[in-house]
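Data availability (excerpt). The following record was deposited with the supplementary files.
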Amino acid sequence: MAVDANILIFERTKEELRAGKTLVTAVEAAQSAWNSILDSNVSSLITATILYFGGSATIKASPSC
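Predicted structure:
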């Protein structure tokens, strides 16, 4: 997840720089990527919750160490 977040912010910054904005302005504009990151994390939490409560014993089992 953290890698995806970094890539989203970095790519958004590159897009803004290509559009001719200054570095400071591009970094500020890249902050809008946080909406996508939050959406992705919430979706993952919802999926994990559904799998945990609706899944079989195989999904719920924790790995033995």
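Summary of structural features: The helical segments are 2-18, 23-30, 33-54, 57-60.
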